[in-house]
Amino acid sequence: MPKNADLSRELIVQAKRTPQRQWLSEVSAVPLQQALRDLDQAWRAHQDSRAGKRQGAKVGAPRFKSRRDRTQSARFTANARWKITDQGKLSLPKIGEVKVKWSRSLPSSPSSVTVVKDAADRYFASFVVQTDDAPLPATENEVGIDLGLSHFAVLSDGTKVDNPRFLRRAERKLRKAQRALSRKSKGSNNRAKARLGVARAHARVADCRREFHHQLSTTIVRENQAVYVEDLCVKGLGRTKLAKSVHDAGWSAFVHMLEYKAARYGRAFARVDRFLASSQTCHVCWVVDGPKPLHVRQWACRACQTIHDRDVNASRIVLAAGRKLAPGREAES
Ligand SMILES: [Zn+2]
After folding, report:
1. Local structure of residue 284 (DSSP, 8 states)
2. Which residues form the Cas12f1-like TNB domain (predicted)?
């Protein structure tokens, strides 16, 4: 594997002297070096993954980036001499001062800033800051969560959370923009405009969804001492007929938020085995009642006769199974 210093000499210092790569000297050298660092890390991850020295999903080899990619980013570290001015502007090397619409105040002085341009031609500045999160006051509540298609989530206390209306409205606009794009002829100016329209609609849907996930995950973590979710194997579902709705629901992003927020605020979090058959098992007597097709929304347990709402029952099974996993707790069933 080539050394970072050698790559830097060849791909940055030498390249700047060629007419084809001269544009590299028009930008700060720090993001270029950061790109090499990212590349180095990506190769290491790929090699460790191939050698079996890395847990989790297989990591592929890094792919080429282009200055024409739809999404672009540049990271400025502390030694890049960037700063936030007294007027609240962002001053970047070789770019100058740019106006910032701050979405929140920074809790401490940032160590680096990444400027991202997304496919909808919007610019974002994202800062790395130190935070000291205090655990939330303890509570007795625990929750099991069933993520489903008929509702976004069903909680073991019986709460059913639908996809919010603003999200559905944004999705309708996205479909309209996509239809408009498909009618434009290739290579035309109108097509380029329509493409940006689709990108903007996509960005809006993604923003709405992220906002919804943030609000819901914060509420759940704040109100519960322990959070249990069925491990969905989203990758497996992604290859089936349910694929589109699965990606739309963005479950894995949501579960990830639950996980890191639980860690941040001192809450317990666990994924429960997806082979638990939560939709077939009675949460009262734990008799497995046999498979139920998706259209069966309600069923009566053949052993104890309890009538179950399919999704609420599933989330109670997740809760009970999570409690069994949790250390220092007696099994309750
Ligand atoms: Zn039963």
Report:
1. T
2. 251-316
Instruction: Look at strands 226-230 and 142-147 and give their pairing.
Output: parallel
Of 240 and 170, the one with more pLDDT: 170
Give the count of beta carbons closer than 10 Å to the beta carbon of residue 152: 21
Q: Is 230 a catalytic residue?
A: yes
DSSP 78-89: GGG--EE-TTSP
Q: How far is the CA of 236 from the centre of ligand 1 (A)?
A: 30
pLDDT confidence of residue 300: 92
295 C-alpha to ligand 1 centroid (Å) = 20
Query: What is the structure's pLDDT at 332?
Result: 41
State yes or no: pLDDT of 234 exceeds 90: no
Given a cut of 90, whether residue 120 has pLDDT beyond it is no
Active site residue 26: no
Three-state secondary-structure class, residue 259: helix
Q: What is the pLDDT of residue 333?
A: 38
Nearest to 97 by CA among 86, 108, 112: 86
Read off the pLDDT of each residue in 52-56 and give the average, rounded to a whole number: 85
Side chain identity, residue 135 = P
Of 281, 287, 289, residue with least CA distance to 319: 281
- Alpha carbon of 230 to ligand 1 centroid (Å): 20
Sheet holding 268-272, edge to edge: 160-161, 153-155, 142-147, 226-230, 268-272
Residue with tokens 């625990």: 142
